[in-house]
Amino acid sequence: MAELSIDGVSCTYDIRGENAVMLCPPHPEMGGSRYDVRLERIAGELKKAGYSTLRFDYLRPFRDGLGEIEDAKKCILYLKARHELVGLVGYSFGSVVSSNISEYCDVLVLISPMRKINRIELKNTDVPKLIISAKKDQFVPFEESKEIFSWLNPPKEFFEVDTDHFYFGKFDVISKKIREFVESVLRCGD
User: Fold this and answer.
1) Of 26, 81, 140, 152, which has the fewest Cβ atoms less than 10 A away?
2) What is the CATH number of the domain that holds 89?
3) What secondary structure does DSSP assign to the chain, as a single string?
4) What total number of domains does the chain contain?
């Protein structure tokens, strides 16, 4: 595991295989960071499957989402220069950020995506995507998640989890599902 800075953006980069997955954290004004427990668990599952992972922190001060998209873009371009195929996982605010840089990835996972937050909106894409939705989400009502899924272009898959926005008690469930989906798209599993 390496701690590094990509143009000022602090990152944790674990090199495991030729393909990589980048994980975008939740809202930095609500405590979101590369050390988010969900992202750490997902990264651990992906590393066990042979994927390199990169997690990062958004630069400060908060820049209404627009600057955070730029931070994520710097990081994904860093990965694209070093790995054959790159996946992208975003949780909550991070899912909206991820959708805005999806042209640089080969597979996209959106966990509790929102239509809009601060000054950024969810962007549609033709990249294969997995949408994970919590049935009891306090911030993104389940019906809204289904509407977002319907709006998104195929190829796509919807995975519902019987929990709330924080996915407590379901980290292993979502981590395994993400690994399986990424492997099915990138075709690099064992």
Assistant:
1) 81
2) 3.40.50.1820
3) -EEEEETTEEEEEE--SSSEEEEE-S-GGGT--TT-HHHHHHHHHHHHTT-EEEEE---SS--TTHHHHHHHHHHHHHHHTT-SSEEEEEETHHHHHHHTTGGG-SEEEEES--SEETTEE----SS-EEEEEETT-SSS-HHHHHHHHHHSPSSEEEEEESS-TT-TT-HHHHHHHHHHHHHHHH----
4) 1
